[in-house]
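Thread: quick sanity check before group meeting

JM: Hey all, I'm pulling together slides for Thursday and realized we never actually wrote out the predicted structure for the chain we discussed last week. Dropping the sequence here so it's in one place. If anyone has concerns about the input, flag it before I start.
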Amino acid sequence: MKEPIVDVTATTLLDEVVRKKAAGWRLVALTAVPSGEDAVEVLYHFDLNLVLSHLRLRVARNGRLPSISPVYFAAFLVENEIQDQFELGFDGLVLDYDRTLFLEEEVRSLSSPFFRAGVVKKTPGATVVTGEA
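JM (edit): ok, ran it. Output follows.
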């Protein structure tokens, strides 16, 4: 059985999330993946009685989305992680680590100028800081 994927926009996201919560859906996870060089696709995964449903939206890198953490509190963790990794911002986060949840302050994202300057090297399973820019 193919699970339903509903395309939403930043404007309609919160309405859809509130509907899911009211209907008893449990938030399972969020997934973010690059979509071309200048965009990110964000998927919101929900479960109800072992049936999965997904919301999907595409946003420009450095774009902003409404946080769903006021509706599903636990979403603040993965939204902060997405901010760290994809340079997106979430408006209304219940706890906002300002892109420092998992990364040091000087390394704000995997596509930061520190990577382009060679200060930080990506290696399988690790990020290594090699020196000053």
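AS: nice. The longest helix spans residues 75-86. The beta strands are 5-7, 26-34, 39-48, 51-60, 64-66, 89-91, 120-123, 126-129.
JM: adding both to the slides.
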